[in-house]
């Protein structure tokens, strides 16, 4: 072990998992973040989507547990109140093609909790398993080194004091959507990196409610946006989280944004293609205001194609590619990037020449599935900025619609979709022979006329009264 110190910029899940990936190969890892990290789960100013619904997909959870062997991350989160939802059986989902069935199989287990709880659980697991990782509050103002190799970072002076240089044998940028990586690289002489931004104009409006009496195990409920209608997409979801609460997120694309006014929030939900979300929250006690965010665009920096790339520098997570959060893939994609870093370090050694470029290319491949899924859907909405649907996009949309229709009445077709949307496998899964056959033949079971409720859920719903 020749490398002494690695520096990771950003203490969110992407940064902490990157720190865990590097920890076996260096003497110390210093994680830098401009926020003061709370001892218990709490919102941070530096996390723009902190107030909105988060899903930890099965693909992401599997990778996190691989990076943190023996930490029992799943058990920690459940013990702290996170909920496990089987997409196959515990989800009420209305797609544009109809209601999905609930199957006997309990598969595609997805973790639901507030972002602060998920982040806190990952942070505790990483730090307890890796004593050589420390977290320090600081604001990074630039990189040190040259176009050939990064040698550390520059820290902004605290309280107006002089800047500080921090040497590092490796630097990972996991600073999120607000990354300053491209300007920092320009200073080192690394420029000309292509970017792409695709913005559907999504606005998220979220409010937390107390679960009504009689519904402690009400399933996650989702009314999906319709990318094929030619109108702005509108969606709503109820996500069960810790402490007997529902996190309710409404999403509207440009031209149909959800309101911040509490009364209008409920009315907007009642006017979705199904009023189910609105009826449920009408009977639930609100626990706070409506929070709105518009930090939702898809942005990709093609770092892997840079003509020059410094040794010992990698960007992962949102610092490399960000996705519309409505698809719930951000944390899982970041975990895939951290795994790419861990595998490369383990196989080639942390001081191998060209390792940083090799890792950056692998990170790009790992993020490609989430990027393709998000952008190929967002580009279909009217008013999208940064792209227009091509003939290929429209053909893919037509195929996707057929497969989605088949999935409403076929467990196998639904599994093909869930394999991709939960990042268990690449989008190529949708074009395997079994998926192609289902798309061609359609749903073997008839369409449902309403949500697939159990008898107990139906009784609860029939007795709902507006909360006062």
From TrEMBL:
<dbReference type="Pfam" id="PF01494">
    <property type="entry name" value="FAD_binding_3"/>
</dbReference>
<feature type="signal peptide">
    <location>
        <begin position="1"/>
        <end position="27"/>
    </location>
</feature>
<dbReference type="InterPro" id="IPR036188">
    <property type="entry name" value="FAD/NAD-bd_sf"/>
</dbReference>
<dbReference type="InterPro" id="IPR006311">
    <property type="entry name" value="TAT_signal"/>
</dbReference>
<protein>
    <submittedName>
        <fullName>NAD(P)-binding protein</fullName>
    </submittedName>
</protein>
<feature type="domain" description="FAD-binding">
    <location>
        <begin position="6"/>
        <end position="344"/>
    </location>
</feature>
<dbReference type="InterPro" id="IPR002938">
    <property type="entry name" value="FAD-bd"/>
</dbReference>
<keyword id="KW-0732">Signal</keyword>
């Amino acid at each position: 072990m020749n490398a002494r110190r690695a520096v990771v910029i950003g203490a969110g899940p992407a940064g902490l998992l990157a720190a865990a990936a590097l920890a076996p190969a260096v003497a110390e890892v210093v994680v830098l973040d401009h926020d003061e990290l709370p001892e218990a789960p709490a919102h941070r100013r530096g996390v723009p989507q902190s107030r909105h619904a988060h899903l930890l997909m099965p693909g992401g959870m599997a990778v996190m547990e691989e990076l943190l062997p023996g930490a029992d991350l799943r058990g920690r989160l459940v013990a702290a109140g996170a909920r496990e939802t089987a997409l196959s059986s515990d989800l009420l989902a209305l797609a544009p093609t109809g209601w999905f069935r609930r199957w006997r199989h309990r598969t595609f287990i997805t973790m639901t909790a507030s972002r602060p709880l998920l982040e806190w659980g990952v942070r505790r697991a990483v730090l307890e398993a890796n004593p050589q990782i420390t977290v320090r509050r600081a604001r990074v103002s630039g990189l040190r080194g040259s176009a050939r190799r990064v040698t550390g970072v520059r820290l902004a002076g605290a309280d107006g004091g002089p800047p500080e240089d921090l040497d590092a044998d490796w630097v990972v940028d996991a600073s999120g959507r607000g990354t300053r990586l491209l300007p920092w690289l320009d200073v080192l002489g690394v420029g000309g990196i292509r970017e792409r931004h695709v913005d559907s104009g999504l606005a998220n409006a979220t409010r937390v409610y107390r679960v009504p009496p009689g519904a402690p195990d009400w399933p996650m409920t989702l009314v999906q946006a319709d990318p094929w209608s030619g109108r702005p997409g509108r969606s709503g979801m109820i996500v069960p989280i810790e402490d007997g609460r529902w996190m309710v997120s409404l999403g509207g694309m440009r031209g149909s944004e959800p309101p911040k006014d509490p009364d209008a929030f409920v009315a907007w939900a009642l006017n979705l293609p199904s009023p189910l979300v609105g009826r449920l929250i009408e009977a639930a006690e609100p626990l706070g205001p409506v929070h709105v965010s518009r930090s939702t665009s898809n942005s990709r920096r093609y770092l892997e194609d840079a003509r020059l790339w410094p040794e010992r520098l990698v960007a992962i997570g949102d610092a490399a590619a960000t996705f519309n959060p409505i698809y719930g893939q951000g944390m899982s994609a970041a975990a895939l990037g951290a795994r790419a870093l861990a595998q490369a370090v383990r196989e080639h050694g942390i001081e191998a020449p060209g390792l940083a470029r090799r890792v950056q290319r692998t990170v790009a491949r790992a993020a490609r599935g989430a990027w393709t899924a998000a952008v190929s859907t967002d580009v279909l909405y009217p008013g999208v900025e940064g792209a227009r649907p091509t003939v290929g996009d429209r053909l893919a949309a037509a195929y996707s619609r057929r497969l989605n229709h088949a999935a409403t009445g076929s467990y196998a077709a639904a599994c093909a979709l869930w394999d991709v949307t939960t990042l268990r496998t690449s989008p190529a899964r949708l074009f395997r022979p079994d998926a192609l056959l289902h798309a061609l033949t359609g749903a073997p079971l008839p369409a449902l006329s309403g949500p697939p409720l159990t008898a107990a859920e139906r009784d609860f719903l029939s007795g709902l009264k507006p909360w006062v």
